[in-house]
Amino acid sequence: MDEREKLIQEKIKAEEFIEMMQLKGIRQEIQEILAKEKAFDPKEIEIDPVFRIKLASCEANVTVDFVINLSTVYFMVIKCVATAIESWERYVISFARAAKDYQIPYAAVTDGKNIRIFDAISGSLVSESIDGLFSHKESMDIIKNFRKVSRPEKSLEKEKRIIYAFENIKCSPHQQDQ
Fold first, then answer.
1. What are the beta bridge partners of residue 59?
2. What is the Cα gyration radius of the chain?
């Protein structure tokens, strides 16, 4: 490896470290908002939950930063990113639609300042404000009328493939070498 290649790798490592530190701060901030401002019990906020998705040709473990679990139903998935929240919208909606045997009703992606909250079943945008995150009380009111509904089989496979594709691009080749 020549000197120029080493410098490039060091720069990439430094940028990845900065992004990782930003992401930790975003995750901490969102967790605090959920617990303190929105009044969720910390036990209702699952951190880095792992779900197993099965595709026709393979299986994969997939994860999201937070899942709001209201005892009998998962209510919302939240993905935290350091930049470009729009590029993760499709992932988080697909995740909510396919990670469980029913569709999780809401999905959000945030960089800590901006957020996009979606009705995952319809795919429609619900809010673009951190204040738009549902409180515990609002969530409980919504969940009273919620019925667990599976995604139609034909589109379920598509949603799983989208999740699988995003999961495989999360790791840069440099991270895989470690």
1. 54
2. 17
pTM above 0.70, yes or no: yes
* Contact by Cβ (8 Å): 76, 136: no
How far is Cα 92 from Cα 20, in angstroms, rounded to an integer?
Answer: 19
Cα 7 → chain centroid: 33
Cα within 13 Å of Cα(24), Cβ side: 6
pLDDT at 25: 85
Cβ neighbours of residue 65 closer than 8 Å, sequence gap 6 or more: 27, 30, 47, 48, 78, 79, 80
Least confident interval from 14-23, 30-39, 157-166: 14-23
Question: Which residue type occupies 173?
Answer: P
**Domains in the chain, start-ordered, CATH in brackets?**
3-171 (3.90.1570.30)
